[in-house]
Amino acid sequence: MRKNRFIFQDLNGSRWRRFKWFAGGGIFLGAVALVLFIRSIAVSPEFEQPNSLQNLKRQITPRANDHRQVTLSQSDRALSRQLRINKPSPGRTGSRPPDNGGIRAAFFMGWDEAAFRSLLANKEILTHLCPEWLSFTDLEAGIQEDIDSNLERIPREESFKLMPTLSNLDGSKRVPEAVEALAQADRGQQQDFVASLVAHLLNVKADGMVIQWEEIDPGLSDELTGFVILIADGLKAEGLDTWLCVTMDSGFAVYDYDRLAPHVDRFVAMLHDENGEGDHAGPLASQDWFDGWMKVISRSAAPEKWIASLGSYGCDWEEGSTCGEQVSFADVMSRAGNSGAVGLQTTAPSYNGTFAYHINGKGHEVWFLDAASFVNQLNAVNDFGFAGVMVNRLGLEDPSIWNILTQAISGKPLHPAALIPGGNAITSIGAGEIVSLDPTTFDGHRINSLDQKGRYTSDYQKLPSFPTLFRSDSANDAFVVLTFDDGPDPRWTPAILDILKSRGLKAVFFVLGSQAERHPEIVKRIIAEGHEIGNHSFTHPNLAEVPSARIQLELNATQRLIESIVGHSTTLFRPPYSADSRPANPGELLPIAVAQSLGYMTILENVDPKDWQEPPVDELLQRLRDQLPFGNIILLHDGGGDRSSTVAALPEILDYIQERGNTPVLLSEFLGLHEKKIMPPLAEDKGSLNVVASGLGFQSLRLLQDMLHIFLIVATILVVLRTVLVLILARTHKNPASIKDCLPPPVTILVPAYNEAKVISKTITSLLASDYRGDIRILVIDDGSTDATSAEVLAFRDPRVRLVVKKNAGKARALQLGVTLAETEFLVFVDADTQFEKQALRLLVSSCQDPKVGAVSGHARVGNLGSFLARCQDLEYICGFNLDRRAYAVWNCITVAPGAISMVRKSAIIAAGGFSHETLAEDTDLTLAIHKSGYRVEYQPAAIAHTEAPETVSALASQRFRWAYGTLQCVCKHRHMIFNPQFKALGWFSLPGIWFFQVILVAFSPLIDLLFLQALVFGRVGDVLPYFLAFLTCDLLLAAVAVSMEGLPLRVALRIVPQRFIYRPLLSFVIWKSIAQALRGAWVGWGKLQRTASVAIP
Amino acid sequence: MKTKAIIILLLGAFHLTAAEPSAEPRDEGVLFGAYCDFGETEDRVTLEGIYEFEKLAGKSPAIIASSSYWGEQSFPAKNLQLIARHGAVPMIYWSPWDKPYDEEKGPDRFSLKEILAGKWDAYIDGWADGAAAFGRPFFVSFGNEMNGDWFPWSGCYYGGEHGGNEIFRQTWRYVVDRARQRGAKNIRWVFHVNAYPADNNTWNLMASYYPGSDYVDWLGLSVYGKQFRHTGNWSEFKDMLEWPYEELTAIDAHKPVMLAEFGVGDFPKSGDKAKWIREALSSIPKHPRIKAAVYWHERWQNADETYSNLRINSSPSSLKAFRQGIASPSWIGLDSMPHSALNK
Asked: CA-CA distance, A40 to A691, in Å (whole number)?
């Protein structure tokens, strides 16, 4: 059988074969490119690490320590003065056994992660916890709280009591003036202070408070003593305890202990800092010094009033410095071990440990207190009958002290542990923010023995090892480095670059791969203007919480991107988030370890004015001023948020830095390295395939993204324009003039049917019920149905109903036969599943009286509203008919008078060349042909028919596929009409509209959804949201107007939202399937809808 | 048009002359100066120290004071540059003594005799070269408070009435001559005595130490109220100033006078520091010859463990008095001083 030709026909399938070859080749090439791209990211770039761990380790050497104490410390002088004072001891009230139920308190700093770890491990042993929370340094500002979030992190159900400290510290500086002024102020002012203090303490549910005021003038002893009594009494009235810290130096003379004893609950003797702030290197609490102060203390109030604060930490002095660095016991072990110190001992005469080392050419001397000194001191404290001890401080201590305290509880003899566990802490050596990690850990051990004086000594046989950060710094004190994280950003980075350029200053930009990928031109500019670039990961995840493979991928992708943009690698790395604190958790070390294994130097920071909080310029500047004396790597941000305050403050920041005498330099200059060591140029021979692959990959990604973005913008503009136009036109539409007076002409109603037994009788009944006064002839063309369609028709024993049965040959041929058989000028097309409302026929005919009108479209509605899917289609029909068709009618560019309900003049059909069999959408095809013949196509919204909508997704898909395929055929067949001035709005508006809105936009809508999803995942919703909202607003607006025109409640319009999510993928799928089918050149059959006969005329 | 152009020219000229911070006395007003408590040592200048003091005082000093000890054997170029960048005029107490810098221990290797013998010529020359290289005018108070008995360059350590003052005069001229020969013409030499002498005898009078008008640019005076809790009585500012002012101004009829140091401790039981400050700040500008005054803002601990707190914020009332007093337009601070062109 010879089939007629149809649009897209490809008899021997050569087009499809050609397409398959091209497509197959394209996919293969694409896949190879993708593999190469992924491989280029997975394979780590190679470069030499400029600051290797081995080099750093070689710079640390042991040094002889002469243990000679040249000068008396301030504390020693105070002790000798106190010992000279001849004062009788109040004496002990009988000797007591070693303490086994006394106070075991600990000082606690909330910012120290190690302190939290120690607290959680040892909370059972503690009776009191003393967090450094309150300070008083300004009379007008009053008491300052620095609790942050660490209150919640402290386990409160525990048995220990909470005794926050009240210091006179402002940052790291003691401020005595406020305390002294208040001590001399009038009673009322003092009472206000106490009330405020009580409120603060009750607010945090504290059990009391530890006063820790230092550097107060002993000349004000009377006033201060009176003031403390007032405080203690005020607290006692609220059930709160008062402890008073007493320093073992000139501060001892500040208080009158006899007067205070009845009021203050405990005195805390700070039995450490023999050599502290302002002293040269020396013992922290030598045994003689300790015993001397115990003697002084014992004649000042009863021993039960006293708690001994025992030091358990180390202090590291740079040679000649009077400002030692307080370090943990683990740090001490780590520094001793890494410097190769031998013969480390805690022994007579001081019973404090000490050693010395060299680092970067500078001598260091370390003194420390360990478990042996703790036992010796605790024994002395117990002998004197003190109320208990305080550990100074959590997180720094020799972990063995907890065993010693446990021994004390059970009344056993005290002895230090031999094993020194390694690993369970993070230690550091050296100063500076350029860090390398040595993750090696092992345990150490010491031999503890009692000497002739009955005191413990420790001989360190093997020093333990902890994960250790080796820190390096610039040799030049004046150098500082400006670093900008999280860029590049087109709003802020260029502004920052401009400022730097105008001053001829250089900075380091730690870029995010995701940002660099979007703004390669800024990355190029950064390099072109002589700055350095570092790797800040691709997507800014918290690297402490992701697996090492992800860290590697983040770093590699960013590195490859930088290489592809600027032709240099970078050896600089800064971890997101954790750069602003000292690594405190093992998790934070992983990124450093991974980066190091890839060859990076990790650059942390020590000046962080927290510009990301977007503080006012003055505040930002003040923070910088406060921190600059203590740091040289400055962290600012050029991306990741509103950086207007950073940009605004930058000139003043630079002014201040330079006024202070600091010079901002690149990291290469900072470290005295050649710039090629920091940003090595790509070797031409090495890994060039990877570099090219990653470069092309990133470029294609960028191109794709740019194209998508442009598409999005164009689509949005067109959608908005179309919406506005349709709304305006639809409102101007007037129903076609109906001529009531003339005689109604005879009408033939053509009902093509193929297996419509279930619904055909309903359709015919609705037609027969029409209020049309003229002659009606219903012609059912049975296109070779295999069911009872014909029988159903024949059951109407009505002369107006005729039946023609033919061999199955498709709807178009059935219609063509009907047209041939019809004897009237006016033909009405009805689908067999569609029921007319009473007035529909009359209105259609009356709209067609003008001889220039070749066709009139009726208004089809969904009749079966039982399912959600059908209701969605109902809304779609309402929009399509009420708005689009009205609008199109105004400009005479209706593209389809639907087969479901339309009226056509027979003469117009003949003029158009009859029904064509070339497309699946014979109604569209015919409508366009009628346009071509010069007829108008009208629309009559009041001629309503109810059709049956598919109720399952698969039925809908197959229906839409036929429509889509047919439409595609039609627009291809009539392509010469597009942009053809002869066809006016049809050529310039509605036909291109089909191409763009029904084919292209629908086909690419999943890509837009993907873009939106990506934006959602990477937190850049703001980029896509406006478009997304524009689309949705247009949809909602159109739906609302259409629904109100239909006289339905507005809420029906809301259905458009879920409809979008169900339709979009479905429509996109059928469009792609249609395109594939078109390429294949195959014919598509009727795509029969499974009739359910659920349409009822309301 | 013409007049407009002239005005612009005049304004420009004024701007140019005003751009340099000045160490010259002005017809009206007193230059506000301060030592800003830079911490442990007097020879360490920090910008944060200056800023902190300015925030307290509410006015930026036009003169920032610090020390240069001969024991360090260097010219404090960094300090001077920092102060100049800030826009102020440096004032240096150039003190010939050695570590440890403790008072009342007598002459050391930098004794005046050694200086006169030429032993430290190289150091003086190098220091003068540094001063010349600095280029801007600045104040130098060499061997301050020589009429006391606490510093090792005091006349009492060099024979007292038997020529102690003469050795000081000779040394002064020796040092100034060398410095001038090296081209350090930008130094303004401040002859800086203590208000009251340690030994109240003719040989120890201010005039006895005066090296001659050719060798001195400014006359300087230390005026302190009570400094130590357990020694000395409270004395009001005007009693501390009046007689020494008369004595000093009598030495030379024209030279401008500077209170090269002034300040008082905070001892509410002995006296009212706020009142002392109020009187000082209001009466100083009333003395026509006083063209500059340097407040000594420091807190230190004494041998008897008590503290001396001369800081302006030793108590809220003192701070308030200082802020109010210094706010007067007769005190010329940095804001009323032309700002340094170096900044821009």
From this structure: 7
Give A276-300 pLDDT, tens digit per residue.
878 889 999 999 999 999 989 988 8
Span B164-175, mean pLDDT?
Answer: 97
B244 by DSSP, 3-state: which? helix
> How close B114 comes to chain A (CA, Å)?
28
Residue A917 annotated in active site: no
pLDDT of residue A1047: 85
Interior/surface letters A198-224, b for 16+ CB within 10 angstroms, e for the rest: bebbeebebebbbbbbbbbbbbbbebb
- Note the Cα A628 to chain centre separation in Å: 30
Q: What is the DSSP string of A182-225?
A: HHTS-HHHHHHHHHHHHHHHHHTT-SEEEEE--S--GGGHHHHH
Q: Pull the structure tokens for residue A428.
A: 């550091």
DSSP assignments along A749-812, one per residue:
EEEEESS-TTTHHHHHHHHHT----S-EEEEEEEES-SSSHHHHHHT---TTEEEEEE----HH
- Residue in the structure block whose two tokens are 């499809």: A16
pLDDT in tens, A793-843: 988 888 899 999 988 888 888 888 999 999 999 999 999 889 999 999 888
Give the gyration radius of chain B's Cα atoms. 20
pTM tops 0.80: no
Cα A390 to Cα A165: distance, rounded to the nearest angstrom: 13
Question: Which is the catalytic residue, given A112, A241, A279, A485?
Answer: A485
Rg (CA), chain A: 44
* Active site (annotated) includes residue A637: yes
- Select the more confidently predicted residue: A295 or B216: B216
Render pLDDT for A651-692 as a digit per residue (tens, 0 to 9): 999 999 999 999 999 999 999 988 888 998 886 655 567 777
Q: Rounded to the nearest 10 degrees, what angle do helices A644-659 and A493-503 cross at?
A: 20
Q: Classify strands A353-359 and A419-420 as parallel, antiparallel or unpaired.
A: unpaired
What residue spans of chain B are helical by DSSP H?
2-18, 47-57, 77-86, 112-116, 121-134, 164-181, 206-209, 237-251, 273-283, 316-326
Q: Give the model confidence (pLDDT) of A156-170 as tens digits.
A: 777 899 999 999 999
- The answer to whether A600 touches A573, Cβ cutoff 8 Å, is yes
Helix/strand/coil (H/E/C) assignment for every residue in A15-66 = HHHHHHHHHHHHHHHHHHHHHHHHHHHHCCCCCCCCCCHHHHHHCEEEECCC
Q: In Å, how far are A430, A511, A559, A672, A674 from A574, measured between CA atoms?
A: 19, 9, 13, 20, 20
Phi first, then psi, for residue B95 (nearest 5°) are -110, 120
Q: Return the structure tokens found at B86.
A: 């800030």
Q: Any bridge partners for residue A306, and if so which?
A: A267
3-state helix, strand, coil in chain A (%, to 5): 45, 20, 35
CA distance, residue A324 to nearest chain B CA (Å):
15
User: Are A946 and A1094 spatial neighbours (Cβ–Cβ below 8 Å)?
Assistant: no
Q: What angle do CA A594, A482, A626 make, to 5 degrees?
A: 110
- Is this complex scored with an ipTM above 0.90? no
Interface test with A, best of B41, B60, B272, B307 (most A CBs within 10 A): B307
Interface-testing mutation among A177, A182, A193, A252, with chain B (most B C-beta atoms within 10 A): A177
- Written as one letter, the residue type at A916 is S
β-bridge partners, A779 = A750, A802
Non-local (6+) Cβ contacts of A870 within 8 A are A862, A864, A949, A950, A951
Q: Which of B299, B317, B296 is nearest to B308 (CA)?
A: B299
Give the three-class secondary structure for A424. coil
* pLDDT over 50 at B6, yes or no: no
- Three-state DSSP class for B236? coil
CB atoms within 10 A of CB A1010: 11
C-alpha span between A92 and B193 (Å, rounded):
57
